[in-house]
């Protein structure tokens, strides 16, 4: 039986000492986190490992660029496009036909790999709501029904379709912070090379769609296949939706407000900017930057508050599509 001092004054002194120790340890934890707010996270990204074999791998690294490691290690096409906390989601054509993508999940180190299920997927970003229980993805059924939006249960793999327009293209969906709205790239006639895909917003069930972005009508510098409005990322802290767009002959990162009233260049990085992902606190941006459309890309870390830009990768290949994932 633990010793309990009979003297009330002594008990109070011991209690105060314990409380001071707890507060001291909490202070150390808070100070450490303040000094390094990204210490609990890693950045996953995609790398073309072998062009001849069409082998893409998912890599992981610390937010300072150290600790790079291949976590998929499989001769397939594997691309990550989303993470919820410590669950990293990626598409892969392993165990099926070439570039026939299905959804997989692992932890930040590539362990506990599970095929989630759901429909066959398009090459597209995704997002979740309801504490990671539901994903919204762009998928297909058969040869005709392509680039439609589906909600996937991350436990069972069961899914339901929320768009059904064989002529249109829906891609790169994301949820609003409250999960009640979705933003996605939309093109009414997917085979029309003149029509531009723009960002649209709708209710989470696909109802009440409205256009968010409007590509400058006088800008003819982007090829038909280029991103006029790229995959959207909703930053809850800034209340902005960011996306890449090729304007004036080069890719940049742009931002639009959820009501569509504000649309502007987010920042001039001095290089072309592409796929990106915001840290959970909304302050740090992991982004791929490149000299031009023919140059390999590298991953950089950008501090929105200080505007400091730090290069994280320097390989000869194409490091792309950074995603924040908890350790």
What is this structure's SSE topology?
Layout: H1 8-35, E1 41-50, E2 55-61, E3 69-70, E4 78-84, E5 87-92, E6 101-106, E7 114-121, E8 127-129, E9 134-141, E10 145-153, E11 159-161, E12 169-175, E13 181-187, E14 198-203, E15 210-211, E16 233-235, E17 240-247, E18 250-256, E19 263-267, E20 272-278, E21 284-290, E22 298-303, E23 309-311, E24 319-326
Antiparallel strand pairs: 1-2, 1-24, 2-3, 4-5, 5-6, 6-7, 7-9, 8-9, 9-10, 10-11, 12-13, 13-14, 14-15, 16-17, 17-18, 18-19, 20-21, 21-22, 22-23
Task: Characterise the protein shown here.
The structure is a single chain. This protein has 327 residues and is mostly beta strands. Helices cover 9% and strands 44% of the residues. It has one helix at 8-35; strands spanning 41-50, 55-61, 69-70, 78-84, 87-92, 101-106, 114-121, 127-129, 134-141, 145-153, 159-161, 169-175, 181-187, 198-203, 210-211, 233-235, 240-247, 250-256, 263-267, 272-278, 284-290, 298-303, 309-311, 319-326. Strands 4, 5, 6, 7, 8, 9, 10 and 11 form an eight-stranded antiparallel beta sheet that branches. It has a four-stranded antiparallel beta sheet with strand order 3-2-1-24, with no helix packed on it. β9 (134-141) and β10 form a beta hairpin. The protein is globular and about 85 Å long. It has a single domain (41-326), classed as Neuraminidase (6 Propeller), CATH 2.120.10.30. It is built from one helix and 24 strands.
And the CATH topology? Answer: Neuraminidase
Instruction: Profile the largest sheet.
Output: 8 strands, antiparallel
CATH architectural group: 6 Propeller
CATH class assignment = Mainly Beta
In which range does the helix fraction lie? under 10%
User: Distance between termini?
Assistant: 39 Å
User: Average pLDDT across residues?
Assistant: 92
Give the total of beta strands: 24
Low-confidence runs (pLDDT<50, min 5 residues)?
25-33
Strand percent estimate: 35-45%
Q: How many helices does DSSP assign? A: 1
- What is the total domain count? 1
Instruction: Using the CA coordinates, give the radius of gyration.
Output: 23 Å
Tell me the name of the CATH homologous superfamily.
TolB, C-terminal domain
Derived structural class = mainly beta
- Overall shape: it is globular
Q: Encode the helix/strand succession as letters.
A: HEEEEEEEEEEEEEEEEEEEEEEEE
């Amino acid at each position: 039986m633990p010793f309990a001092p009979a003297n009330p004054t002594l008990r109070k002194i011991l209690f105060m000492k314990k409380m001071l120790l707890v507060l001291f340890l909490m202070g150390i934890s808070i100070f450490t986190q303040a000094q390094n707010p990204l210490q609990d996270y890693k950045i996953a990204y995609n790398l073309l490992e072998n062009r001849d074999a069409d082998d893409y791998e998912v890599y992981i690294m610390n937010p300072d660029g150290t600790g790079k490691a291949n976590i998929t290690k499989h001769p397939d096409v594997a691309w990550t496009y989303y993470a919820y906390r410590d669950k990293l989601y990626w598409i892969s054509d392993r165990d099926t036909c070439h570039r026939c993508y299905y959804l997989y999940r692992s932890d930040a180190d590539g362990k506990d790999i599970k095929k989630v299920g759901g429909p066959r997927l398009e090459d597209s970003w995704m997002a979740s709501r309801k504490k990671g229980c539901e994903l919204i993805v762009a998928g297909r059924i058969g040869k005709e029904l392509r680039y439609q939006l589906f909600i996937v249960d991350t436990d069972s793999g069961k899914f339901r379709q929320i768009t059904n327009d064989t002529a249109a293209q829906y891609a790169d969906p994301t949820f609003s912070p409250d999960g009640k709205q979705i933003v996605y790239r939309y093109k009414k006639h997917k085979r029309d090379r003149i029509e531009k895909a723009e960002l649209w917003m709708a209710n989470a069930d696909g109802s009440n769609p409205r256009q968010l972005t409007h590509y400058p009508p006088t800008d003819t510098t982007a090829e038909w296949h280029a991103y006029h409005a790229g995959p959207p990322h909703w930053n809850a802290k800034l209340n902005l939706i960011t996306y890449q767009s090729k304007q004036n002959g080069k890719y940049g990162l742009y931002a639009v407000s959820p009501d569509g009233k504000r649309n502007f260049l987010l920042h001039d990085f001095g290089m072309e900017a592409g796929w990106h992902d915001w840290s959970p606190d909304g302050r740090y941006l992991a982004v791929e930057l490149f000299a031009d459309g023919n140059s390999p890309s590298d991953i950089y870390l950008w501090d929105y508050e200080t505007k400091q830009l730090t290069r994280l990768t320097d390989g000869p290949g194409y490091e792309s599509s950074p995603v924040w994932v908890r350790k």
